[in-house]
Amino acid sequence: MNRYQYIRIEKDPTMKVRYYRDSKYPTVPLSNTDIYVITTIGDRYDLLANQYYDDPSLWWIISIANDLLPQNSIFIPEGTQLRIPVEINSILTSYNELNSWYGWYYREKFWAVC
């Protein structure tokens, strides 16, 4: 999955550069189907995503599901209990809706009114 697929690309007219808007991430609700693991030496979010989802680019799902852990590294301290969401389709749908042009347009219009 290309997680930048639905991210708007902005243009800065003064610097003549293009850049991606910030990604918005959905919350990951607890589920009875979640898997809990204890990390070992060498575990990383991308390796676990590849193991459980067959897609290392979905590392961010495991990361945001464990939001009490530091979010500035793909490395996870050894002995950490991690929650790995199993039902990820609704998470991916929420992510795409939050980051689609349509979603940005209506959020910006809403916040402009408030």
| Derived structural class | alpha+beta
The chain-level mean pLDDT equals 81
Q: How many structural domains can be distinguished in the coordinates? A: 1
Uncertain runs: 109-114
What is the radius of gyration computed over CA atoms, rounded to a whole number of angstroms?
A: 17 Å
Number of beta-strand segments: 4
* Discrete helix count: 4
Largest sheet: 2 strands, antiparallel
The helix content, as a percent range, equals: 25-40%
Q: What's the SSE pattern?
A: EEEHHEHH
What is the topology, as strand order, of the major beta sheet?
1-2
Cα end-to-end separation? 34 Å
Shape: globular
Fraction of residues in β-strands: 5-15%
Protein described:
- This protein has 114 residues and is of the alpha+beta class.
- It has one domain.
- It has 4 helices and 4 strands, in the order E-E-E-H-H-E-H-H.
- A two-stranded antiparallel sheet has the order 1-2. It has a two-stranded antiparallel ribbon with strand order 3-4.
- Strand 1 and strand 2 form a beta hairpin.
- Helix 1 packs across helix 2.
- The radius of gyration is 17 Å and the shape is globular.
- The chain starts with 8 loop residues before the first strand and ends with a helix.
- The C terminus is likely disordered.
